[in-house]
Amino acid sequence: MASIKKEINAEALRAKGIPRKSWSKLEFCARNDLSEGAYRELQKRGLGPDETEVLDRILITVEAENKWLKKNLKRKDKAEKAKVTKAASDKPARTKSASIKAASAEA
After folding, report:
1. Which tens digit of pLDDT belongs to each residue from 46-102?
2. CB 68 within 8 A of CB 34
3. Which of 4, 17, 80, 105 gives 20 to 30 Å between its CA and that of 95?
4. Where are the beta strands (DSSP E) in 1-107?
5. What 3-state class would DSSP assign to 58?
6. CA 63, CA 50: separation in Å to the nearest integer?
7. CA-to-CA distance for 16 and 101, rounded, in angstroms?
8. What is the side-by-side order of every strand in the sheet holding 57-61?
9. 56/84 Cα distance (integer angstroms)
10. Which of 45, 49, 41, 46 is nearest to 23 (CA)?
C-alpha cells in the first residue's frame, strides 16, 4: 500500500515541476542500467557512488550520481586509450632487414 502512496506523491511532484534530488539504490541501479550485484561489487571496490543515509534509508543524491558518472566516463576513456595504445604496440614493427628479406623472397 505504501508504494501506491509513494507513486501518487511522486506524480504530484512531477506535475508541479519539482525535480527529484535523490534515489534509492534500486532506483539508481534502474536509472544506470546496473544489476544489484554489480552495484554491490562496485561499492566493495570503492568505485560506486557516494551514499547518504537518511534515517533507515540509503539514498544516492543527484550530485553523487553526476560525480560518479563523470568518474566513470574518465575511467572508460582511459581504458579505451590504453586499448588503442596496446593494440598499436602489439603490431610487429617492420624493420629494414625484414623489408630486405621480403623483397629478396619476392625476387
Report:
1. 999 999 999 999 999 999 999 999 998 888 777 777 777 776 676 655 555 565 665
2. no
3. 80
4. 22-24, 52-54, 57-61
5. strand
6. 9
7. 77
8. 22-24, 57-61, 52-54
9. 46
10. 49
